[in-house]
Design brief:
The protein is an alpha/beta fold and 460 residues long. The chain has 16 helices and 19 strands. Helix 10 crosses helix 16 and helix 12 runs antiparallel to helix 13. The two termini are 31 Å apart.
């Protein structure tokens, strides 16, 4: 690894994985954890620990962590809460570095004393603790899936940190269906030790992560979090879904993970100062993250809309105005270039309407003109399905054009089954494509907001 060593390296780059509480019984969490680690393809030694068994999944099973003959690194713990502190001590005595504590029954159910004891053992024996009350951790570049969620995780460049276990597991499956790739998926639960700030600090220099998405209910140390987030935001975007906006929502947060949610307006102001982008919901957050996962950065504000439908062009124009996206008034030479790809009744102004007669050839020419012209910094492509055009060919063209330029590009395709197939092609090949023009515009607006905040942070 070329980066400097970090205390959390064993969490993402473990040399070995131990599953304490491994089980032979399908449906048990200890069984899912072990089989996920094995089936997802982790390359290092895997050690099941459970005094009930001599072997599980053709692996020798050990009575305790101390009985493992080799060195241990990352230990996943899924046993009753009362037994966890003792196991943390055994992990430390054996030389383990990080414990992923799946077990519930701590602060979230009023057992603050047991969580305090857990943390004391971790500090005494030099073991960092992720959790408790979590579903695990996955890091796709190392083929590590130490969760009890779905076995397959699509590899990509979005790191997702979640304080909600059930939501995180559900979104694991959803990202697979939506062709959204993840670099890391980290459940943090009660955050007794390792918290959002620690994870952001590690992810800041992770070459496989281009954007960090966080589902958050509360923070332990606000100053620490904002200090780290400010540094990360200079390098890569952070998108946060902050739960507990309302008074009843804050009460729900407190009963869920034992967190103190705090005043929502304070969070919003602090996020803005740290360069963090706050999304209103899961759909919006992942829409933004998909665009950020391209690794592109804003080159400027001036944007053009290229469309074969006047109506969607108007909708996108309105959305750009609402979301503070500056639409370029194309200079004369660019209007002439656009005009060569449309009939006389088209419009070379912005939005650029190449009309319903356009095929993928006309789209390719108009988009290429925008890519080559220095006045254009961002491109929005809107396609409405027609009988004369092939959405799949257009998707393939746009994917190649997107790879050829540093300019941010987004698209919205509207139509039937062929359009759905075209959208799937684009998402699989990391082109940010959306089912409505408004969602495409909002994603680009988020990127431009991050660009503005990033410049302000660099001046501080």
């Amino acid at each position: 690894m070329s980066r400097k060593s970090h205390p959390l390296d064993p969490l993402f780059h473990p040399k070995s994985v131990v599953i304490v509480g491994a089980s032979k019984t399908p449906g048990k969490i200890g069984h899912a954890l072990l089989t996920n680690v094995l089936k997802y393809g982790f390359k290092g030694p895997v050690y099941p620990v459970n005094p009930k068994y001599e072997e599980i999944e053709d692996l020798k099973c050990y009575p305790t962590v101390l009985d493992i003959p080799g060195e241990i690194d990352l230990v996943v713990v899924a046993i009753p809460a009362e037994n966890v502190p003792k196991v943390i001590g055994e992990i430390g005595a054996k030389g383990g570095k990080v414990a992923v504590v799946i077990s519930s029954g701590f602060k979230e159910v009023g057992r603050d004393d047991l969580e305090k004891e857990l943390l004391e053992y971790g500090r005494r024996y030099g073991v960092r603790i992720l959790g408790p009350n979590i579903f695990g951790v996955a890091y796709t570049p190392k083929r590590l899936n130490a969760t009890f969620g779905p076995t397959e995780v699509r590899e990509g460049s979005i790191a997702f940190i979640t304080q909600s276990g059930a939501l995180g597991i559900a979104l694991m499956g959803w990202t697979i269906v939506e062709k959204i790739g993840l670099s890391a998926l980290i459940s943090v639960g009660n955050k007794s030790d390792i918290d959002d700030a620690d994870l952001l600090e590690w992810l800041k220099d992770d070459p496989h992560t281009k954007v960090v998405l966080v589902y958050m209910e509360g923070v332990k140390d606000g100053r620490k979090f904002l200090k780290v987030a400010r540094e990360v935001s200079k390098k890569k975007p952070i998108v946060v879904i902050k739960a507990g906006r309302t008074a009843r929502g804050m009460k729900a947060v407190s009963s869920h993970t034992g967190s103190l949610a705090g005043m929502d307006s304070v969070y919003s102001a602090a996020f803005e100062q740290a360069g963090i982008l706050r999304a209103d919901n899961v759909e919006e957050a992942f829409d933004w993250a998909v665009l950020f996962s391209t690794g592109k950065v804003p080159l400027g504000e001036e944007t053009v809309i290229i469309t074969n439908g006047g109506g969607v062009g108007v909708l996108a124009t309105d959305a750009c105005e609402v979301n503070r996206i500056k639409l370029l008034d194309p200079p004369e030479d660019l209007r002439e270039a656009f005009s060569s790809y449309m009939p006389p009744f088209g419009s070379a102004r912005n939005p650029v309407d190449i009309t319903g007669q356009a095929t993928h050839v006309e789209f390719e020419g108009a988009v290429e003109s925008a890519i080559k012209h220095d006045s254009v910094k961002n491109i929005i492509v809107l396609y409405c399905q027609t009988a004369v055009s092939d959405p799949i060919k257009l998707a393939e063209v746009l994917v190649e054009q997107n790879r050829s330029t540093e300019k941010p590009m987004v698209a919205s395709f509207i139509g039937g089954e062929e359009v759905a197939e075209a959208m799937e092609i684009m998402r699989e090949r990391e082109f940010p494509a959306y089912p409505t023009p408004e969602r495409a515009v909002k994603a680009l607006a988020a990127m431009l907001r991050w660009g503005r905040r990033r410049k302000l942070l660099d001046r501080v």
